[in-house]
Every structure is written in C-alpha cells, then in structure tokens.
Amino acid sequence: MKVRIFVTLKDGVLDPQGKAIHHALESLDFSGVNDVRAGKLIELDVDASVSRADIEKMCDKLLANTVIENYEIEIADAAQGTMG
C-alpha cells in the first residue's frame, strides 16, 4: 500500500527556505508569487496490515515535528490506484 505524507510548517512559524525560494523566484523575474512555504513529501510503501493510526504514530514520533509542523496523510486506494 502506498502512503504519502505531506509535512508543512504551521502558520506563524518562520520559513527561511520558503523565503529563499521566494527571493530566488523574484531574482529570476517571476512575478505574481506572493508567498512561498516549503515542506516535504514522504512516501511509504507499507503492508496492508499497517493502519492509519499506525501511520499517524509514525508521524507523531518521527516523521514530523508536531510542535512546529502539520502533516497530511494520503493512502492509495488499491482498488482504483488513486491516493485519497
């Protein structure tokens, strides 16, 4: 089973990487970008026996720093081959 975990900084937490990307885009003459927030994508391939609760525990204990980060979990729908 495929799992995607999107980890992003919570609102109000400074994002130096996002600021650097924003500055670089401006210096390359890309306009219209008001703000950039950088995050990370973690993909797991797990057995069907792994529950969503197990994945949440993985996020809480290792994959995300829940003091400053949020995470969103997408689990592939094996029947349709899509993430949801």
TrEMBL record:
Q: Which residues form a coiled coil?
A: none
Domain of life assignment? Bacteria
Q: What is its EC number?
A: 6.3.5.3
Name the InterPro entries for this protein.
Answer: PurS, PurS-like_sf
Keyword ATP-binding on entry: yes
Alphabetically list the UniProt keywords. Answer: ATP-binding, Cytoplasm, Ligase, Nucleotide-binding, Purine biosynthesis
Which pathway does the record list? Purine metabolism; IMP biosynthesis via de novo pathway; 5-amino-1-(5-phospho-D-ribosyl)imidazole from N(2)-formyl-N(1)-(5-phospho-D-ribosyl)glycinamide: step 1/2
Q: What class of enzyme is it?
A: ligase
Answer whether the UniProt record assigns the keyword RNA-binding to this protein: no
**SUPFAM superfamilies, per the entry:** PurS-like
Where is this protein localized, as stated in its record? Cytoplasm
Can you provide one Gene Ontology molecular function annotated for this UniProt record? phosphoribosylformylglycinamidine synthase activity
What does the record give as the reaction this protein catalyses?
N(2)-formyl-N(1)-(5-phospho-beta-D-ribosyl)glycinamide + L-glutamine + ATP + H2O = 2-formamido-N(1)-(5-O-phospho-beta-D-ribosyl)acetamidine + L-glutamate + ADP + phosphate + H(+)
Under PANTHER family, the record lists: PHOSPHORIBOSYLFORMYLGLYCINAMIDINE SYNTHASE SUBUNIT PURS (PTHR34696:SF1)
Its function, per the record, reads: Part of the phosphoribosylformylglycinamidine synthase complex involved in the purines biosynthetic pathway. Catalyzes the ATP-dependent conversion of formylglycinamide ribonucleotide (FGAR) and glutamine to yield formylglycinamidine ribonucleotide (FGAM) and glutamate. The FGAM synthase complex is composed of three subunits. PurQ produces an ammonia molecule by converting glutamine to glutamate. PurL transfers the ammonia molecule to FGAR to form FGAM in an ATP-dependent manner.
The record's comment on protein family reads:
Belongs to the PurS family.
Its quaternary structure? Part of the FGAM synthase complex composed of 1 PurL, 1 PurQ and 2 PurS subunits.
The record's HAMAP family line, in alphabetical order, gives: PurS
Q: What is this protein called?
A: Phosphoribosylformylglycinamidine synthase subunit PurS
The lineage is: Bacteria, Pseudomonadati, Pseudomonadota, Alphaproteobacteria, Sphingomonadales
